Amino acid sequence: MSNQVLVVFDFDHTILDDNADTSLFNLIEDNEEARALWDQYEEGKWTEFMNKVVTFVHSKGVSVDNIKNELSKLPLVYGFGDLLHYIKNNPQFDCIIVSDANSLFIETILKARGLLDCVTKIITNPAVVNDNGKIIISPCHSHTHETCPPNMCKGTLLQEFLKNAEQEYFAVCYIGDGTNDLCPCLSLTANDFAFPRRSYSLEKKIDTLPTSGHLLKAKVMKWESGLQLRYYLEEFFHS
After folding, report:
1. Res 143: pLDDT
2. Is 110 a member of any domain?
3. Is 100 a catalytic residue?
4. Domain of 91, in residue numbers
5. pTM confidence score
6. Is 10 one of the catalytic residues?
7. Given the residues 10, 21, 100, 181, the one annotated as active site
């Protein structure tokens, strides 16, 4: 059995101590226009909503460079620069991101911090810039899991990644914060680890799971910083 460990990160409020998508509202000067735009969001249709947001800011003369500049200012969760470099420099670990943000925003933020090469793969909603300089965001995939957003089932995506991986992993560590991170956690085995961020919705979801039925097989370790996560990885997988 290989001793390789797959470390899987969500992005917003996990690596990034903010929400990359909603940071675009910082670029809207008129508060009433911003509120009217927020009112257009429909539950479960985040990708469609974000296309409305990028279209709106584009119509106001906000360029892709303006957006990238705003994204580059956003803070990482404390200790995550050190954590990602530790993972990169430890050959026992492979690192991927599974996020409902988009490729352009995630890559911009990681590049600004010199962290893009710490990640093996980013699984997210594709985003491109068209000939008119407007960002177009597409759904990551389609699936049949009714409890997940229509554009992304992280549990399905994680299992597809593991099925197609060139090697079998000794363990999987899933690190996240949000409601849509519960599905991939429930897909983990007893040999794996689920790391919910303290005081966020994933922790609350896990804490309220029924004790009977053993829905969550993975070991649960709660975290508050990248330094704490590095300690866990060193403690559990020191070779």
Report:
1. 82
2. yes
3. no
4. 5-16+76-125+143-237
5. 0.96
6. yes
7. 10
